[in-house]
Amino acid sequence: TFPYGVLSIATYLEKHVNKKINIKIIDGNLYDSNEFIKNMIEILSTFKPEVIGLSMNYENSYKHLEYISKTIKNINEKTIIVLGGSSASFSYKEILEEQDYIDGICYTDGEIPFTNLINSENMLKLLETDKSWITKKDLHKNKIPEKSLIETLDDAIDINYDLIDIKKYNM
Length: 171
What we know:
Layout: H1 4-16, H2 33-44, E1 51-55, H3 62-75, E2 80-84, H4 86-90, H5 92-98, E3 104-106, H6 111-119, H7 123-129, E4 133-134, H8 136-140, H9 154-157
Parallel strand pairs: 1-2, 2-3
Antiparallel strand pairs: 3-4
């Protein structure tokens, strides 16, 4: 199926970010592990994002998280790597304790937190101060993340499917 959560966030960003952005979506569900990593490395050899968001909706994704995030940091150590998705939202403490390359985890819906992150002058600082992001430092402060919900759902349901190659999905 389409990566609806990622598409929703990306579409929301296109409409609400106050600077020019370039969004690329690489859906790991379309590739086997080796193919995904090869594709990701190829894309990151020319595309140099400030932030990479990874979605982890199922716990079976976790076994790949360290290798993927380490590979990203090896390509560009300054890239901020954030994680979201249902499994990440409810296992943030364990993930941050075990994963060295994740800079922050978004708690539940990501449209507003991700927009705040991209609009921020200091993204790493925002990860530590925004109510819906949690970092390793926040764990030591016993921070409990909070949801940031979109007030008008019409802002989130007009998905931009041009961000993916629809032909790759068997629908």
